[in-house]
Amino acid sequence: MGPSHTPGFTVYKDIFEIKPAHFAVYNKSGLHIEQYWKLESKHHLEDFDETCNHLDSLLKDAISRQLVSDMPICTFLSGGLDSSIITKFTSDYMQEQDMAPLDTYSVDYVDNDKNFVKSDFQPNSDNYYIDLMNKTTYSKHHTVMLDTPELASSLKEAMLARDMPGMADVDSSLYLFCKEVKKEKTVTLMGECA
């Protein structure tokens, strides 16, 4: 089972979910499901620079709206594109507002550096990209180390927290990672499965 599934379906027999961009109304006439939004393809009229500026503006707007909090904010930083973008914009915002450096968190595994094998899919370990981001952002980085026995022993807890079967090792590591970060921070921005 992967990180995604067919919209509208669940792993349970005869139990369905409401698809994204839909809502349900139940009244004396029965159950009615309505679509409230639909992605539409339009002709792209912007040149490269305009597109970059437009995307920059959209990302800044989307991320800055999430930064309103009465609690300190942190980001999860995996080194991937989504978490790096979120971290960069959040870090810039915090620096512009004269706030304390952004706390970033990543997860790593005991002996990961010894066992990593590069491939076309992953030419470098995540740490390479995490280090690049840390050098270019206004942040203080924290790494949560996990080991195999700890991951294995938390599989059931992770599945119960998710409330449905998932991706085993990923669910387990995310569960333990969040549990550890929660000791320090309450509000987290992340790009998990974005």
Automatic annotation (TrEMBL):
Annotated Gene Ontology cellular component terms: cytosol
Gene Ontology process terms (BP): asparagine biosynthetic process
A Pfam family that the UniProt record links to this protein: Asn_synthase
Gene Ontology MF term list: asparagine synthase (glutamine-hydrolyzing) activity
Domain Asparagine synthetase: 55-194
Coiled coil feature spans: none
Protein name, UniProt field: Asparagine synthase (Glutamine-hydrolyzing)
Organism: human gut metagenome
Phylogenetic lineage: unclassified sequences, metagenomes, organismal metagenomes
